[in-house]
Amino acid sequence: MAKNKKYNKTMHRKIDSVSSSFTEEIWKGVKILIAIAIFLGVFYLLTIYILSKDDSTSSLIDTTPSEADIQYQKILAGNSFSMSDDHYFVLYYDMSDDDIKSLYTNIVSTYEDKDDYDAIYTVDMSSSFNKKYSSDTANEDVQSIDQLKISGPTLIEFEDGEVVDYIEGEKSIQEKLA
Questions:
Q1: How is domain 74-177 classified at the CATH fold level?
Q2: How much of the chain, in percent, has pLDDT values that exceed 70?
Q3: pLDDT tens digits along 117-173
Q4: Neighbour count for residue 100 (Cβ, 10 Å)
Q5: Residue ranges per domain, the chain?
Q6: d(CA 66, CA 162)
Q7: Which terminus of the chain, N or C, has less C-beta within 10 A?
Q8: 151 contacts 138 by C-beta, under 8 angstroms
């Protein structure tokens, strides 16, 4: 019986140590879950704070939908010879310079205010798509797109896709479109 009491005491200690280590493991798990929950909560609140902060650029951007404005008048230089009109003009100039752009926009607007006018298209020579047609010397005898070389503000008159007149310079262009 003494042996039995000693056996019971050691078993009781083993059971106590097992149950206490089991309880410690549960507490470790709970502490880890609480730490993860706190971390995610802080991360969530930080994200909300950053996203709700008033960003000065967002107030400058107009997000209201507007009607699309299709520009039929501005074309690529490569399309100069293939427009569907029977008789039309193509005005080539550098639109990156605001003064020049304003000048030629006014010339075109004045021309289009006439009662009877032929179609006029503009080509932005500063565009990377049109750079291959830009040159130091112009080709006034151009007959196809492969021969097109523009050296400055130029107005070309087309009839049935063929060049009728080739005009260079601001004054000459104004006189032609007047």
A1: Glutaredoxin (3.40.30)
A2: 78
A3: 888 999 999 999 999 999 888 888 899 899 999 998 999 999 988 999 999 988 999
A4: 16
A5: 1-62, 74-177
A6: 39
A7: N
A8: yes
